[in-house]
UniProtKB/TrEMBL annotation:
UniProt keywords, alphabetically: ATP-binding, Cytoplasm, Nucleotide-binding, Transport
This protein's record includes keyword Repressor: no
Keyword Transport (UniProt): yes
Subcellular location: Cytoplasm
PANTHER family attached to this UniProt entry: SKFA PEPTIDE EXPORT ATP-BINDING PROTEIN SKFE
GO molecular function annotations of the record: ATP binding; ATP hydrolysis activity
Alphabetical list of Pfam families matching this protein: ABC_tran (PF00005)
Domain ABC transporter, residue spans: 18-253
Main location (coarse class): cytoplasm
GO cellular component: cytoplasm
Protein family per UniProt: Belongs to the ABC transporter superfamily. ABCI family.
Name of protein: ABC transporter domain-containing protein
Coiled coil location: none
Length: 296
């Protein structure tokens, strides 16, 4: 923590895997989602990204994955590189993003649909440059039947193939957006163990946005809690007081969200000042196109 207002996650003696500095981003220039967002994440960290619906988790992960452009690219760096411009980061497999959609960007091949009449084998073995040992390990771990036809499998089975394809290359940074929601309990826990190993043994970095906290107390190294695009809490998980007392991440997050709702309700009952009427964020709305959203 600290360092000129930049929130730091992990071993600060190492070079950051992710650095976000004074980031601004707006879907709507009149209501910026991120106004001055700072975050540093170091190798080996497993950060849980937590927040209410609409708080900005997916948007942040997409920005970190280079899918949204933000003003001044020097402020969002992954592995020291500008994510939006440096497409090699994703193509090389160093930066992996697994999100909610049923498609996965695989190198320069673009978006490959996971619902066509293809076999799981065709999909998985179609990813070039994969290490066969790692591939076999993932197929085994995710209990994938290579004969599955992608247009006939269940959501959970399709998700397993998506995860397998996304992890075939030994990523350095992995961004996960609620991808375990369709997995059965055993597959989810085995998958989380695999990811833990990747961080402990290779120094990989993971940022994982989720609303499901089962088993994550001992998995995560850090918590990053955001509210309406604002970073509210960043802590090593062992330093979270509420968690020390309850030992339960679910109830800890529940208490934060309930407090947030309460404060929001309270705020709505107080009449806004003149400056707040001009801008809900207390500063001029962004007018420059530099702050507008660009999508991939
Ligand atoms: N493409 C878009 N265009 C305009 N506004 C958007 C777009 N995507 C998201 N938003 C808005 O940005 C805010 C943050 O959305 P985001 O999806 O990042 O939240 P989230 O924390 O991931 O939510 P959830 O927990 O529901 O997945 C929300 O208010 C949402 O309405």
């Amino acid at each position: 923590m600290g360092n000129g207002g930049v929130e730091e996650m992990g071993d600060a003696t190492k070079k950051e895997s992710i650095r976000v500095l004074a980031m601004q981003f707006a879907y709507d220039p009149q209501a910026p989602l991120f106004a001055d967002f700072n975050l540093s994440v170091f190798p080996g960290s497993r950060c849980l990204l937590i927040g209410a619906n609409g708080s900005g988790k997916t948007t942040l992960l997409k920005i970190l994955a280079g899918k949204h452009m933000v003003g001044g690219q020097e402020v969002v760096r992954v592995l020291g590189r500008s994510v939006f411009h440096d497409t090699q980061l994703v193509c090389s497999g160093d930066l992996a993003y697994l999100g909610g959609s049923w498609s996965k960007t695989v190198g320069s091949a673009g978006e490959i649909p996971l619902q066509g009449d293809f076999s799981a084998e065709h999909m998985i073995f179609g990813v070039e440059g994969a290490d066969p040992v790692r591939r076999d390990k993932l197929i085994d771990l995710l209990d994938i039947n290579l004969q599955w036809r992608m247009h006939k499998v269940s959501d959970g089975q399709r998700r397993r193939v998506q995860i397998c394809m996304g992890l075939l290359h030994p990523f350095k940074v992995l961004l996960l957006d609620e991808v375990t929601v369709d997995l059965d309990v055993v597959t989810r826990l085995d998958f989380l163990d695999f990811l833990k190993e990747e961080c402990d043994e290779r120094g990989a970095t993971i940022v994982y946005a989720t609303h499901i906290f089962d088993g994550l107390e001992t998995w995560a190294t850090h918590l990053v809690y955001i509210q309406d695009g604002e970073l509210k809490r960043t802590r090593e998980i062992t330093q979270v007081d509420e968690l020390k007392h309850s030992g339960n991440l679910h109830s800890t997050v529940e208490s934060w969200l309930r407090l947030e709702t309460k404060l929001e309700k309270k705020k709505k009952t107080i009449p806004p000042t003149q400056s707040q009427k001009t801008s809900p964020y207390g500063f001029s709305p962004f007018s420059s196109s530099r702050h507008m959203a660009y999508y991939r």
